[in-house]
Design brief:
homotetramer, Thiol Ester Dehydrase, Chain A, 5-stranded antiparallel beta sheet, 3-stranded antiparallel beta sheet, 8 strands
Chain lengths: 137, 137, 137, 137
């Protein structure tokens, strides 16, 4: 759960009006959109253009597991920072660990686990070497 | 703008918590989701299974124009009714006209215009005969 | 994880076009919307009108933890069934356990944990007696 | 429809995976989220902090009319630019005109009309002087 010496990225997002609900806070489902954008930028930073990866590799990295704890709510127009690192990477699984921050306040903690599938059939396959290289320590 | 003698359908939807924003009302973008579901049901009622249409016809009906007027807001947990009919159908365009009702109160009025494209290239083509039959008067 | 003798509800949802992504399957974030609607119906079935609960009780039940495993993808226009029951209820927490089914195929399994807060401040408080009665065994 | 000498802003957005649908393009409803973010930035650029405006002014600027034409589809990971200017501003209405660009390609054109309401009742009121100053020519 601690990024330690691992490569981490920080992705900034501004909370939109549509991201809120009638409780006046960001809806819990919205964070999955923020985290997805942060993962795409993580991969880009580490040499993987995910769009090309899907097209040229005829592969995809679908989410197979989500775990998220919500500690403090975010509100409209706040600037948040998504800290992302790879918690676990094996031939079968790639787990991104994420913390959403508002300044020094920790809002959510999560682990998002991806598998690798061959497209368009969707059959499970091993993580390709370029993913292992980009996401390993 | 009046459904007159045309075939209309009525589709019911219950407003979800996620559909609201911090103003305590349904966000204006949410209605496009409701209207899309209502169009799929309109087509089903008139003999078109839109999923099969896309797969077997190698075609799609993308939205090319949206016009919507918002008169009254909807709120969480309300049951709404989407009245849908075909306002215009030609070989190039199919325009669905929709009213969102809460009981006898008219909340929104809209016209959603679709074109027909060949997939996966996305090139424009004429409306297929089955659409003309299903959506004509 | 097994509903056993507990009260369960089954909520049906039809997959919308907007619910899909370019991989041709339901986006992982979409299920949180389905599950939320299923929880509102669970509460209604067991005597709690959640809208009234928020207004009259000056309280809310925000999501504080999400855990979801995705086993099989859902696709456009499929009819899904959300099986929902209360896995754990204490004075501090209410955990809904959910399975999303397509016929006899299990698509996702999840546990969604809610806390109870006083509104509009958002301070944590004990689960009200009516929630304990409605959601206890 | 032409921004002419008026003040315009350009807001950049990167298309997310969740923004796409199974046709492989950005879903038509997604643009309303992009445009909303662009309007908030337009207002900020011209001296209005919309969050403060809502809280301190006990007012809101709800969308009362949407008109959008979709000319070309956007795809995952593309960088888009939202050109925004005020097309019409009166004491009753504020109309934002927007073009979504991918480089030199025009993807959508739209007009989004806002009214001003007193919150929390939602009663219509005149545009406040600070809005007229910020959004007038």
């Amino acid at each position: 759960m601690s990024p330690g010496e691992k490569k981490t990225t920080r992705y900034r997002v501004r909370v939109g009006y549509v991201d809120t609900d009638q409780a006046g806070v960001v809806h819990h489902s919205t964070y999955l959109r923020y985290l997805e954008a942060a993962r795409v930028e993580y991969l880009r930073t580490h040499g993987i253009d995910y769009k090309k990866f899907e097209i040229e590799g005829r592969s995809a990295l679908p989410v197979v597991e989500v775990a998220m704890r919500y500690k403090l709510p975010a509100r409209f127009d706040e600037e948040l920072e998504i800290e992302t690192w790879v918690g676990v990477v094996t031939r079968a699984r790639l787990r991104f660990d994420c913390r959403v921050w508002r300044g020094t306040e920790l809002l959510t903690e999560s682990e998002i686990t991806l598998a690798c599938v061959r497209m368009p059939e969707g059959a499970l396959q091993s993580m390709p070497p370029e993913i292992l290289r980009a996401c390993g320590e």
